[in-house]
Amino acid sequence: MKKISVIIPMYYEEEMVNICYREVKRVLKNIRKYTYEIIFINDGSQDRTLELLEKIAKRDSKVKLISFSRNFGHQPAVSAGLKYATGDAAIIIDADLQDPPRLIPNMLKLWEEGYEVVYGKRKKRKGETIFKLFTAKMFYRILNSLSTVSIPKDTGDFRLIDRKVIDAINTFPEHNKFLRGLYSYAGFKQTEYLYERKERTAGETKYTLKKMVKLASDGIIGFSYKPLTLILILSTILFIISILLFISIFIWHKYYLIFSITCLFSFSTSIILFCLWLLSIYIKRIYDEAKNRPSYIISETKNIY
Fold first, then answer.
1. Which of 69, 80, 241, 242 places its Cα 20 to 30 Å from the Cα of 137?
2. Are residues 68 and 81 in the same domain?
3. Which of 240, 260, 239 is nearest to 249 (CA)?
4. How is the beta sheet containing 63-68 ordered, strand by strand?
5. Are residues 270 and 147 in the same domain?
6. Are 133 and 55 in contact (CB under 8 A)?
7. Same domain membership, residue 169 and residue 96
């Protein structure tokens, strides 16, 4: 009998722990053709999340618990789940139940048809601000215009991935992983599953603007070198402006020339600082990889052997 692993990262989700467990458990128990495991990852929560997860893992041997020593982030949490998943396929789902567990059987049907990645594509997103909807929409369009691989628009981490894909993802050594991009990079037979994303059942989102910017940065820097070409473009523009200004020496009055040179100097300084900032981002990534520190540290586990 094939086995399904359901991976659920949690960060300050004490209000959702039991609700999420009951809903996912109910769905999985009704799928009789597969055995299953539920992998909860406590991403350094300091509320009662870990306490509640430990109680569940104590009474249910199908529940595996991984607890981080501190908050390392959503992508490392999912990576840890993939590393310890033993199923023939894994389903990644958020603890807030905005991605409904009841859709799992439909994703499994597509897997049975031969698809090795079934990614949830949101046709509607309820309970989210206009700002978040707009920035998410723009992010995927900018990312695809820059990226060397095509990354499906309007998707999140909610997806089913085959064992072959899990094994491939686990071989990628980088530390600042953008998993949505890595699934596309890995290839395999993929298809979308359209669904409406619900509002949170309880609690508040833990995905702050800072975390969204970090995720966007990981996606763009991790899958494109095109931003570096901006340096060439900007330097070319600056060179042309300098030539035109030099020509103006013979045409304009000296006072206008002094003003123009001052403007050019300010403009040039801004471009140089921008280029240095852009280079520093890529250099920081190289520095992070060179240190070779682990992406996460596990403080304790339950039901993992």
1. 80
2. yes
3. 260
4. 190-197, 117-125, 155-162, 89-92, 3-10, 35-42, 63-68, 298-302
5. no
6. no
7. yes
